[in-house]
UniProtKB/TrEMBL annotation:
<dbReference type="InterPro" id="IPR036374">
    <property type="entry name" value="OxRdtase_Mopterin-bd_sf"/>
</dbReference>
<dbReference type="Pfam" id="PF00174">
    <property type="entry name" value="Oxidored_molyb"/>
</dbReference>
<feature type="region of interest" description="Disordered">
    <location>
        <begin position="17"/>
        <end position="41"/>
    </location>
</feature>
<dbReference type="InterPro" id="IPR000572">
    <property type="entry name" value="OxRdtase_Mopterin-bd_dom"/>
</dbReference>
<protein>
    <submittedName>
        <fullName>Oxidoreductase molybdopterin binding protein</fullName>
    </submittedName>
</protein>
<feature type="domain" description="Oxidoreductase molybdopterin-binding">
    <location>
        <begin position="37"/>
        <end position="182"/>
    </location>
</feature>
Amino acid sequence: MTNDAIDVTDLYREFGDERLPPGQRETSAFPVLSKSGTPDWDPETWEFTVTGAVDEELSLSWDEFRDLPSETQQQDFHCVTGWSKFDCRFTGVSFPALAERAGVYDDAVHVMFSALDGYTTDLPLEDCMREEVLFAWAYDGEDLPEDHGGPLRVVTPHKYAYKGAKWVDGVEFLTEAQRGYWEKRGYSETANPWEEERYS
Ligand SMILES: Nc1nc2c(c(=O)[nH]1)N[C@H]1C(S)=C(S)[C@@H](COP(=O)(O)O)O[C@H]1N2
Ligand SMILES: [Mo]
């Protein structure tokens, strides 16, 4: 791992004029938002799976996952409840790198993430195929805190943060869209903060 972080905080230019999306306020705190408690995990039995519309379904142990090529990025974090935290440093594996390893079918259009607490969240495949979508295991150079999704979480700096599954342990490639936990309860499928896509 290198200390140099790739700064992707300017990705907002693709979506809007302001780094802070409309209706958000900047905070220096890093609040915890979880639908239920922090789940236990066991590094000996933890397994990360890639399933669905792929050439090769993957099942990776914690050690195998940690051996994948990783990078550190400086990113902004936007919670749909109205706070944004700038300049978060996350280290992990990019979504496109993982997708390439599995070999995604041409007819895959959507992705479902699943997590140890039963949480799920979905995104169109094209919104996942970005270098900034990371499976992150470190925050600010330290192991990702358990309440922030340790051992492994997804981060989606171009989307509201509910698209980033904490405690992620599965990715399924889909040929038709399905809805995740909050999406079934009325939250936006696409969740673009600069368009204030909070609800659907
Ligand atoms: N597995 C899981 N992932 C989750 C959630 C959850 O309840 N369970 N909450 C989501 C929501 S609504 C937000 S805003 C962010 C919060 O991340 P944080 O607790 O690290 O701030 O995690 C998202 N990922
Ligand atoms: Mo959230």
